[in-house]
Amino acid sequence: MKIIATVVSAVIALIGTVLMSVPAVAADGPADFVAQGQAAGLSAGQARGLQNKVNGYLAKLGGQAHQVAPNRIESPGAVLNVTVPGETEPRALGASWIPECQGGANFGWFCAYEYGSFGGDNIGFYDCGQYKGIPWYTTGSWENNQTRGTQPYVYYGSGSGRLPGAYSVQRAGMNWGPVYGIVAC
Fold it and tell me: Can you tell me the distance from the alpha carbon of 28 to that of 8, in angstroms, rounded to the nearest whole number?
């Protein structure tokens, strides 16, 4: 009987140690967004893959960026919409969805796209004076649909320049590799 009590005590202690070592996830944390992705029809693998992409972007974008939906990150003056792994453009997966860069930039927005022809992840800028990093190193595209004549500033490692004024577009060939960031206007 004493051996059984000792074994039970050891098992309880082991379970307690394991439970104490599992990090808690706050409400609206990554586990909640994975669950929301699954509720929106993603497989468990797709939802985890999407969360991994979002986590990578959050690490690159810094403390002002925060996740608001399974595939959406917001920061002051900008939003980043993320594709589900294996898909070509972002889609609605949560309640917080405004398609500002979907199918072209809505009026008042400058949109940068990870790939040509407005494909892949996209980041939309809507606020003047807000410097935002471009989180990818691909050859993509952009569309400037801000108020007439408004020109975004693009910052490179070797200086800066302006893109053409609104309305303007580059459907392919934008090398995001040397771009450090953009100020919409």
Answer: 36
As a whole number, mean pLDDT of residues 149-157 equals: 95
Q: What is the arrangement of strands in the sheet containing 119-125, beginning at the earlier edge strand?
A: 66-69, 72-75, 78-81, 119-125, 109-115, 139-145, 168-175
Residue 63 has a pLDDT of 86
Among 44, 45, 53, residue whose Cα is nearest residue 71: 53
Q: Which two tokens stand for residue 178?
A: 């040397």
* pLDDT tens sequence across 44-86: 999 999 999 999 999 999 888 999 999 999 999 999 999 999 9
Is 148:167 a contact under the CB 8 Å cutoff?
yes
User: Token pair of 98, please?
Assistant: 């405004």
Q: What is the spatial distance between Cα 100 and Cα 155, in angstroms, rounded to a whole number?
A: 23
Whole-structure pTM value: 0.82
